[in-house]
Design goal:
Layout (H helix, E strand, L loop, with lengths): L5 E4 L5 E7 L4 E4 L14 H10 L4 E5 L16 H14 L5 E6 L2 H11 L4 E7 L12 H9 L4 H13 L5 H14 L2 H11 L15 E6 L7 H10 L3 E6 L11 H15 L10 E10 L2 H8 L1 H21 L3 E2 L8 E6 L2 H17 L4 E14 L5 E4 L1 H12 L5 E4 H7 L5 E9 L8 E8 L3
């Protein structure tokens, strides 16, 4: 059954087409240079490939900007811009931790994202990829092919199958493959994309990639050749290289099962790392909850409120990560976000930023901070969670704060008193529901407030 196409909006306002299929830990499959998430399903081998990837997990597939069913009216294809497409899809789906599978040029996008967000990427799989965009054109054959892309679009698209697939197609298959390319991209947009991609270089980022990485390549692939794969694997700290037999740079052409098996084995053997039993200990706990969500739902309507709440949830988690906190993936009651920090100063800064995000999004927040011992473990579905009395206290403190206000316990104030760059307004001792001893609370105020 053909998957249902949905859309995510990037931070710069571009609509990105995507679909999901299967269940389990997410595997996000990044798009190559000529993607089309709908037309791909007309090819039995391609359909079988994606169905194989979704057998044991949730597959996420999307079209990059300027291609396929995504928004076409774009001109910027810089590396940072293409990272926004990936961010939009995973944030739209609310994915906290996921694996990335990236072919060719998309590998550079995946490396850039993994280096910036190591806490979100559980595994990185690079298929026939390279550290520099120019690596694709090393061979003399590739150089000759590169020249015709700017002079003869018809010849280029007809020849692309031979170069990528590494085999001579039957005429019917060639026509279908060529039609997909021409439907996926226009000549002008494809030239613009490749011109930008040739300048990509993530060499300096490779040493910063922390997730376990599998570099997959076929021995006889001409562009890029196997020497590029070896360099790529050697520069990533926790990477391994797997060389398979064959000539095709397309995973589902040739021995597809060997590729799928290598991916399954890699993900399965280290899958527990995606949701570890984190060590317990002292943490600063932030609890943020939408103020008066029932009244807001009645005023906005259920669909509009849920849409705004999802956007705010993604924004809050981004703020938390930007302040070196860890948003908790496990389900919470209500519309809350729970996070833990190792620094009281950063937790307070994050709470203030979350309050600002809630106000700007039209969904003011109750915000509370407490410090104490927590138990960290994984839920049965593999998502990280934290438990303990300190978590309950943080939640109760949050409930006593005014909309948009940050309340902290005396423990947090003591930890951050000289470093947070704020002042604390004493609210006296407060009785918290379900908590034995009263807690002395403080409202956080900016120094110039």
């Amino acid at each position: 059954m053909e998957p249902r196409i949905q859309y995510a909006k990037t931070s710069d306002g571009v609509s990105i087409a995507y679909y999901t299929m299967g269940e389990g830990m997410p595997l996000v499959c990044l798009p190559d240079s000529t993607p089309h998430v709908q037309m791909e399903w007309q090819f039995p081998r391609c359909r079988e490939w994606y169905e194989a990837l979704a057998r044991k997990r949730m597959l996420v597939r999307y079209d990059r900007r300027g291609a396929g069913l995504s928004e076409r009216d774009v001109t910027d294809y810089s590396l940072d811009i293409l990272v926004l497409d990936l961010e939009a899809v995973v944030d739209r789906l609310g994915l906290e931790r996921f694996a990335l599978l990236a072919p060719s040029f998309a590998g550079l996008v995946a490396v850039a994202y993994a280096a910036r967000h190591p806490e979100r990427v559980s595994h990185l799989i690079l298929w026939c990829s390279h550290p520099r965009g120019s690596d694709v054109w090393r061979s003399s054959r590739a150089q000759a092919f590169r020249a015709i892309r700017v002079t003869d679009w018809e010849l280029y698209t007809e020849s692309l199958a031979d170069l990528y697939l590494g085999v001579r197609l039957e005429e019917e298959e060639r026509r279908a493959f060529t039609a997909l390319i021409r439907e996926a991209v226009t000549w002008e947009s494809h030239k613009a994309f490749l011109a930008a991609a040739e300048g990509f270089d993530v060499t300096d980022l490779l040493s910063q990639v922390r997730p376990p990485t599998l570099v997959l390549h076929r021995r006889e692939v001409a562009f890029p050749d196997v020497s590029v794969a070896k360099e790529l694997a050697s520069r990533i700290p926790d990477a391994r290289l797997a060389l398979l037999e064959g000539t095709s740079a397309v995973p589902f052409w040739g021995d597809m099962e060997a590729v799928a098996r290598a991916i399954d084995e890699f993900l399965s053997e280290s899958e527990p790392a995606a949701a570890p039993h984190l060590p317990s200990g002292t943490a600063i706990i932030l609890f943020a909850d939408i103020a008066d969500s029932t009244a807001l739902t009645e005023r906005l309507g259920d669909d509009a409120f849920r849409a705004k709440a999802r956007e705010l949830d993604a924004a809050l988690r981004a703020v938390i990560r930007d302040h070196t906190g860890t948003p908790i993936e496990g389900k919470l009651l209500g519309d809350g976000v729970l996070a833990v920090f190792t620094s009281a100063r950063q937790a307070i800064e994050a709470a203030l930023a979350c309050g600002k995000a809630g106000d700007e999004g039209g969904l003011p927040l109750h915000l509370g901070l407490h410090a104490g011992d927590v138990i960290r473990e994984s839920d049965p579905d593999g998502r990280s969670n934290v438990y303990g009395g300190a978590v309950n206290v943080a939640s109760r403190i949050s409930g006593l704060s005014a909309p948009g206000e940050v309340l902290v316990s005396e423990t947090v104030r003591s930890l951050a008193r000289t470093s947070a760059g704020v002042r604390f307004e004493d609210r006296g001792e407060q009785t918290l529901k379900g908590v034995g001893e009263p807690q002395r609370l403080f409202a956080v105020r900016a120094l110039d407030a």
